[in-house]
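Worked example 4.2. Below are the chains of a multi-component assembly; read each line carefully before continuing.
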Amino acid sequence: MQTQQTPNRAAAHALEADPRGFTPSSARFLPKEAIAACASFRDAVCLAWEHRALRGMTQRTLAEKLEIKGSHMSNMLNREPVDRHGKPRQDLPARYIAEFEREVGNRALSQWLARMAMLTLMEEVITSQRGL
Amino acid sequence: MTEGEALQISRKAVQDARKRVGDEKNALERELEAKAGTDPELMTAFALAGHLILRSQQDQKH
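Applying the procedure described above to all two chains together yields the following C-alpha cells:
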C-alpha cells in the first residue's frame, strides 16, 4: 500500500499544528481508504505499526522508546482484541499516541481519531435531531 | 483550541452539514470530509474531539 505525504495541505497543516503534539511535521499520512477500513482503534494502531517509517524497528525497540513493557506492547500491536483464553487485550493508552506517532513516523492514529469523532458526532446530531 | 472548543466546533460543523445535505449518512460523511479537507481548524477540532472520546472510552474500562 502506498502512503501519501498529506491528504491535502490544509488538513495536514491543521494536524501538524495540534497543541497536543500529535505530530512530527515529517510524518506521513496514510490513504484515507486505509483509515476508513479500520473498524477499531486497535486496527488503526496495527495499521500505523505496519507502515512504520523504519521497517527494521522491532516491537521491543518501540516498547523501550515508549517505556512500555514488551509483553504489553505485543498485546497492543495484536490485531486480535482478545487472547486465546478470551481475555481482552490492552489497547494503546491515549496518552501514548503522540509518542507512538513520532516513533512510527505516520499519522494514522490522528487520522483515525478525526474520522471516528466525525462519525460519532454525526450519529449524535442525527439522533438528537430526530428526537426533537 | 481547548477540547471543549474542539467539540463545539465539530458539532456545529456536523449540524451545518446536515442542514446542507440532510440525514443521509454517506452524503453527510462526504460533505464533512470535504469541509475538513479544506478547513484546518475543523480538522484539528475533529482530531482533538477524537482524542477526547478515546480517552473517555478508555477511562470507562478502568
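Take a moment to check your reading of the output against the notes. The interface with chain B takes residues 7-8, 10-11, 13-15, 17-20, 22, 32, 41, 91, 93-95, 97, 110, 112-122, 124-126, 129-130 of chain A (CB under 8 Å). Helices of chain A lie at 9-16, 32-36, 41-50, 59-66, 70-76, 97-104, 108-130.
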